[in-house]
Amino acid sequence: MASTVPYMGAVAGVFLQIVRIKGEVDLYRDTWEEVMYNVVKVVELVKHFSASCQRHGLCDKETFPKDFVSIITELESEFGRLAQVLSRCRGKTKFEQFKKGLTRNDVIREIQKCDRQMNRIFDRFVAAMLVDIRFQQLFAEKAQPKLTSVPVPVRVPTLFVNVEEPQSALPHHVPFPQPQVSEPVTPLSPYVHLMSVGSSSVLSFSRPVRPQVFFGRDAELKTIVDLIFSSASPVRVAILGPGGVGKTTFAHAVLTHDQVVSHFGNSRYLIHCESLKSRDSLLAALANSLSLLQPETTSDSYFVGLEPRVFSALASETCILCLDNFESPWDQPGPGRRAVELLLSAITTLPSVTVLITMRGGERPKETAWTLPMLPPLTNFGRDAAKRTWESLAGTCDEWAEKLIHAVDCLPLAVTLLASLAEVSTAETLWERWQRENIAAVEKEKGDKLSSLEFSIALSLESSRMATDPSSGRLLGILGLLPDGMPASPSLEFQRLFPDISDISRGLDTLLKCSLAVRAADKRVQVNSLVQFYCEKHAPVAPRDRQALRDYYVTLASHGYDSLNQDLFKRMTMEMNNMESVLHKSLTWTPLTEVIPVIEAIIAYTQFCSYIGNFSDVIIKSAIQIHGLSDETLGDCWTSLGSICLGDDKVDLARECFQGALSLHQNAQDVIGQANDYCHLGDVLYRCDKVEEAKTSYQNAYDLNVQAQNTCGQANALMHLGDTYRKLGNLEKSCSHYEKSLALHKENLDQLGQANSLKGLAHIYLRVNNISLARDYLEQALDLYKAVNDIVGQANDISSLADVYQRLDDITAAEKAYKEALHLHTQAKDDLGRGNTLSHLGDLLRKQDKLLEAKAHYTEALGCHKKAFDKLGQANDLKGLGGIYYRQGDTPQAINQYNDALKLYEATNNSLGKANCQRLLGSIYYSQKNINEASEMFQNALENYKRANDSIGQGNALNNLGDIERRRGSLGKAEELYMQALMAHQKANDKVGQGNDYKSLGIVYEKLDKLGQAKEMYEKAIEMHKQSGIVKSEKQDHAHMARVIKKLAHDPNVIR
Q1: Quick one: pLDDT at residue 460?
Q2: Which of 172, 147, 356 is nearest to 250 (CA)?
């Protein structure tokens, strides 16, 4: 087969040579196993490519795809180089290698380079095949490979098998995935789990790394893997044990086990929690790993917190999540621990998420149902595993090495550190130093593992490699202050902080070689948490380095959040834990006379955290504890803390913080500070439906901003006042405030502020049926949202435009706009927005009597809102489904849906939703002639409309109550209720409602034989419905009018 496709013969020959040589290699076999896995996956891909070439007749150099020539040529070259490196590992002893002039590091580097090249060629091959339509079908035809539970022999692809080459001569110890055919899946499924490039989906991740040195944990590994694949539901496993015992390495081994990789693919997440100190920081870390922190998402919906989006992403497909060093956020005093436990418990209830945690100690977090049987805490290595680890790192394990292994009680981290030292020194020398410097501590505190570990770290710090690179010790201390570490190749800006360190990258490389630091999956260099502890205790950072770090992170944090470009946003999210660590420690490093810039940076950092949904209050609370701060600065701190509390729905605490801040700012005569506090207090009152009090607070904020000549503050306060007057039904004042805020936003060149003001004005004009102007403002707002790259803002604005098109009876344009909004919400990974738009589409389809399509959209919307954990959205969807069932004649099911929706409205304390649902239920009972039940529902709806300050709703409920009294025969009471309804609708300038009220009054007067008044009411009803464009209602009014005119013509004695 190889001879029929160009270039294949040469590649096949080199591959067979590799296979033969691999069988003779004894040195570095574990490392070669990983390389051979990648070699065979490339060959499997080439095999299928070759078969596809034959199917398409691409079997000569003229027809062979040109884009693949360079890839095949490179593959042949890399196979040749790999064969040479393999040959160098044929020597049975280290001495034979030494005679060839080789060192262990030389060979390891060459092997690792081969591994990287195989991955790179594989990615190139897949990318080229994806853009060539002739090969895309290959991905659609294959099913996801499933890894068997035990290693299987290498299968040489048939493309490369020489008929004269006996199969039995091939090696039998290289693991390789055995494909199994299953149901057809989406394109890319066969190979996507093998690609090393990142995914662009919401479930993008930091790839766990398969441990190269891993001994002594086979039984525990098998236990967990068997548990994962034998349990009926996703497992919850805690990997416990003391520090340095290898919990993180074990977690990597689980996440990269062949079966786990095959089953979960790219949906494997490893979250490092050692720098996380609260529930909110843990939630933000989850969001960051799930690619949910995006600078382009700047709408109001971004401020509601990350929890719904995180849970939605985790629930979107089957995945495995490991929270490493979970004791850091969990081991907090008081309610902090409880909050973290509840978050973990909520995650473990998701039916699609397998959860692992690693924790120091022997206690598991409460509130989680851990899968039985529970995994016992990890203990230190057995002697054999420790020896094999030593041999893999140092080459040989002699009697001195065994003494050292025994001295550190086989603690994995200590064994690793000492073995790394032994590679450049000797175990005998290390043992002599151990006896001289630490034997007394070992005998006195034999069970104290930290003592042994500290000495191991000290030995590493004094190694020859550290001695030849003095800057590396200094860098270790700096890294000890940076939980997120630093890039392996730091930016020029960061390098300028330490101008006397000539080569930071070289110093980091030294730390990596000495096992004092590790390279994380994001290519940042970090220190192990235990090494960090040692550095804090024994190697404090020099004052000049503290000051450099402080100045750097003060500047970075001070950028705030409202003017960040994409690069700066990304940089801040990557440096969040570093910022918090350095700023927090800077409070103790910095004299009171110089601390103000640090506190201002902490306030800006806290605002940024709140913006991305990380409502952690630790650092701002520490700032508040600083003695000697001015009232102005302390007030700013309390304002910042209040914003954190309000964002986290701690409304009462937020009010206390803002009130305390206001008092301090008043003492300091800080006018702008007071204005901000009043504005925040207005937000608290508005959220509590205390709209009149909120209006007063916003007005105070505006007046103070005028006094301070702060036009930005004035614009924001005016916009809030516009929202408040709109909720109160005073549309004229609302419009005036929006217009004033728009003018100030223009003056300040604030495009986002302009867009929000224009959108507020558009909603005003929609309420007064000025459709043309509303559309114009929404289109202007849309252009501005596009200018600031606010995707969610664009989507919401387009949804509002769709509402306009509905009012214009342009159903086609409305449907198109909703679908465009739906696309944008999907692009922004906004399940909440998707759910809302699908629900609007359901409303639109229901109005067109497309009940089955409408039902499908409501059902899909309900799924989105459940994924987003949005109860209000779920209630709206259930209400829509209730309407569908009622239209289909299934009244019992309609009532059930409305009642379910009502429960959710009550759970979210949404007065308007409750009122709408109660009114719909009242209408059903009214149609069933259950007058008393209908009356009760309409009365409850009226009370809830009043709580929501919804004048239109109040008018509608009063009109319904008037219908009840009319049916009962109480025409006088009915007239009174209709008049009250008319006043409410006039207050809201609702022409549709006024038209309905006039018609109802006309019916009452007609029954009272007051035909003249009835005729007058019907005339007014016709005019109102005509102005509002409600053609169906206008026709009904004319029918009533014709009947009255006929009565007047036949009976001249009636009251006119």
Answers
A1: 65
A2: 356
